[in-house]
Amino acid sequence: MRAFINGCRNVVGLDGCDLKGKYGGCLLSATALDGYNGLVPLGIMVCKNECAENWFLFLKHLKPRLDEHPVQEINFISDRQKGLRDAIHTLFPTSPHRFCFRHMYQNFKSHFKGSKLHTMFWNAARAYKAKHFQAHMDSMMVENVKAFEYLMGEDPKSWCRAFFDHNSSCEHLSNNFSESFNNMIAKIREKPLCTLILMYGQLVMGLFYKRINACVGWDSGDLVPSAKKLLKLMFKKIGEYKVAGAVAGKVYKVTSIHSSIFTIDLDRKTCSCVQWQLRGFPCQHAVCVLQQVRPNWVQYCARYYLVDNYKITYASGIVPLEGPDD
């Protein structure tokens, strides 16, 4: 949990998976994301089944440490399991709760057929602006009223990017990092309880050890390699945009080859496309402006993308668990 508090985004993925051993049971997990988009295990709980009572107990134990994160409120992302939803609402009543798009999409496809409807749903979910979301939903209402009503039965704040918390620096629609954790622990899910816990501890310890060693050669005061790689990709597209100054050194107008216009405010670190605000990382339009002034890119990115922040995340390491005889 120190890693989460010190360096991870204020986003927590929650998921449950069945245990495959002789006695069955269920494993509940909480995971977070570091600045390299790597999953960070926060905790697990082994229980008889996935129900409201067990989710409440699990989250109740996590709550004191989750509340220590410097950026509040915590953003949760999970499937729409009712017991989990109730537990989050009770313990974290003001926290945003995203529903995994992948699960929603599968359910939607089982109720409504046709690629046109499916594309409308996808476009609505990934829209960064409320007006674009509304336009896609209006088109769906014309196409199929029941499909529209089905989706609007869930608060769009739970599944559309246009309404996500900008303080999260995270645009994830799906709970893929929790699914990745379930795959990571596949080999330990069939083990007896004590062995499972010891293997889980070994897995997390090895993960932290590997990552802290991997970043030894990274330069302090710089961006993590994945962030620099993304910037390089955007540099290649700069020729597709024209930049015009509006307020010297502060506000700029960027026009795409398709004549779309975007307004960049460097002081506020905002773009009218909204991607900069939601990601905490300059969008393509901001990069077109910033490359003209040769900036220190670190100043325009959320702290999660910084090497120093990444190193702090894993600095504490994980102490080995004692064996069952001890």
From TrEMBL:
Entry annotated with the keyword Metal-binding:
yes
Q: Domain of life, per the record?
A: Eukaryota
Q: Which PROSITE patterns match?
A: ZF_SWIM
Q: Residue ranges of the SWIM-type domain?
A: 262-294
Molecular function (GO) terms for this protein are: zinc ion binding
User: Does the keyword section mention Zinc-finger?
Assistant: yes
Q: Which InterPro entries match?
A: MULE_transposase_dom (IPR018289), Znf_PMZ (IPR006564), Znf_SWIM (IPR007527)
Q: Which UniProt keywords apply?
A: Metal-binding, Zinc, Zinc-finger
Q: What is this protein called?
A: MULE domain-containing protein
Protein's organism: Heracleum sosnowskyi
Taxonomy, top ranks, is:
Eukaryota, Viridiplantae, Streptophyta, Embryophyta, Tracheophyta
